[in-house]
Amino acid sequence: MFIHEFPDDATVYTTIDEPIEPNNQCQFEDFLHTLHPANLPPYRLTLKKNCPVILLRNLNPTEGLCNGTRLICHDFKSHVISATVSSGDFKNKYVFIPKIPLLASQDEKLPVPFKRTQFPIRLCFAMTINKAQGQTLDFVGIYLREPDFSHGQLYVALSRAKCSDNGKILIRPPTTEDTDDHSTYNVVYDEIIRKIFS
C-alpha cells in the first residue's frame, strides 16, 4: 500500500460501528467491521502527514468541503484532522475534518444496516473518471486497462489536466507480438453528434 512509502509514523483510526437496530448490537459488532461499503470510510483508517485523501460527504459546500474534494492531511487528533484543500477554487485552504456518524447508501445491499462513526475520508492516490469530473488537475495519469465504456469518458479524463502536455495515458500493451498498435477506443455515439450538429 502506498501509505507505507510516506515518512513519519502512521496514525490509525478505527471506527465505531453500530447496527441501526439496537437489539443487534452485540451480535454483529465484529461482522460490521468487515464490511466495506463504497461510500463509507474503512473500518481501519491509516493516515500519515501529507497523505492525500478524498472527502466522502458534503460537510460545508460554501467553504469547499464537498463530496469528492481532495485534501492533504497535516495533523491528527482523536476527533479532528487538519488538512488543506489540494485543488480547485479553495486550493491551499486550511480546513478541519471532524469525526461524524455515517450511514451506508441505501443502494448498498447490506445484510445489516449500520452506522459508522469515523472521519468521512479515504486515502486517494487515484480516482475514477466519474469522480474526477469537474476537477482541474496540474497533472493527469490515466490508466485504461480496458477501453473506456461510455460516450465522452476519454474526453472527460483527458480534459482534467490544465495543459494537454500534462496528461499521460497507460493502456494495455498489444496482445500479439507482431502488432504495433498502441491505441485505445474513444467511444462516441454518432446519434449524439448528429443531433448536436443538425
TrEMBL record:
UniProt superkingdom: Eukaryota
Alphabetized SUPFAM superfamilies for the sequence: P-loop containing nucleoside triphosphate hydrolases
InterPro entries: P-loop_NTPase, Pif1-like_2B_dom
Domain spans labelled DNA helicase Pif1-like 2B: 30-73
Protein name as catalogued: DNA helicase Pif1-like 2B domain-containing protein
Species this protein is from: Solanum stoloniferum
Lineage of the species this protein comes from: Eukaryota, Viridiplantae, Streptophyta, Embryophyta, Tracheophyta
